[in-house]
Design a protein that fits this description.
Low-confidence stretches: none
Subcellular location: Cell membrane
Largest sheet: none
Mean pLDDT: 80
Main location: membrane
Structural class: mainly alpha
Pfam families: MarC
Shape: globular
Distance between the termini: 31 Å
Protein name: UPF0056 membrane protein
Strand content: under 5%
Number of domains: 1
Number of strands: 0
InterPro entries: Multi_antbiot-R_MarC
């Protein structure tokens, strides 16, 4: 796989446009001056986590005796729970945070940007061709950079969609996320059963 192909794949899995309504929902009660700082901080956390997982993810999973199938199954469960909160909003919002409470690492950096799907993809890339690890690192930075630009202009999308539009998009993304989560869970389960058999 070429660097640009890998970058596009990672960008699509990160899905910054799909995550935008959720992030706007999370930041809705935060002071406008503080929002941009939080967004930059969480995006930087996500980049560090992605690079750490690319370079050391396989060793970490081996040390913990955790298989890639387990990453896929647990990731599917987490995404499913987030999707349920998107479709059926609660007072604490998608994240369960109190109004005005700042997110820290979870859920913006993990699992929204550095999600289980992206981490699993990085594991696959590093396993397929370990000699090109720096190419994959560059692909991660390209995908992250494109996501960074889109998410930094969240105010433009907020003005275009409005509050009702954001709620509608959030519920639609929740439905799509349930399908992705279920597929991720089933893929992990299928691989686990294949290995077990």
């Amino acid at each position: 796989m070429e660097i640009m192909s890998a970058a596009v794949m990672l960008f699509l899995i990160m899905d910054p446009l799909g995550n935008l309504p959720v992030m706007l929902s999370i930041l809705r009660h935060i002071e406008p001056k503080r929002r941009r700082f939080i967004m930059v901080r969480e995006l930087c956390f996500a980049l560090v986590i992605l690079l750490l997982f690319l370079f050391g993810g396989k060793q970490m999973l081996t040390f913990l005796h955790v298989s890639t199938e387990t990453v896929s199954i647990s990731g599917g469960i987490i995404l499913f729970l987030i999707a349920i909160r998107m479709i059926f909003p609660q007072p604490g919002g998608v994240t369960g945070l109190a109004a005005g409470e700042e997110p820290f690492l979870v859920p913006m950096a993990i699992p929204m940007i550095a999600g289980p799907s992206v981490l699993a993809s990085l594991l696959l890339l590093s396993n397929q061709d370990p000699t090109r690890i720096w190419d994959w690192a560059f692909a991660v930075i390209l995908a992250w950079g494109a996501s960074f630009v889109i998410l930094m202009f969240y105010e433009v999308f907020n003005r275009l969609l409005g509050e009702k539009g954001l709620k509608a998009v959030e519920r639609l993304m929740g439905l799509l996320l349930i399908m992705i989560a279920t597929q991720m869970f089933l893929d992990g389960l299928r691989k686990y059963l294949e290995i077990g058999l």
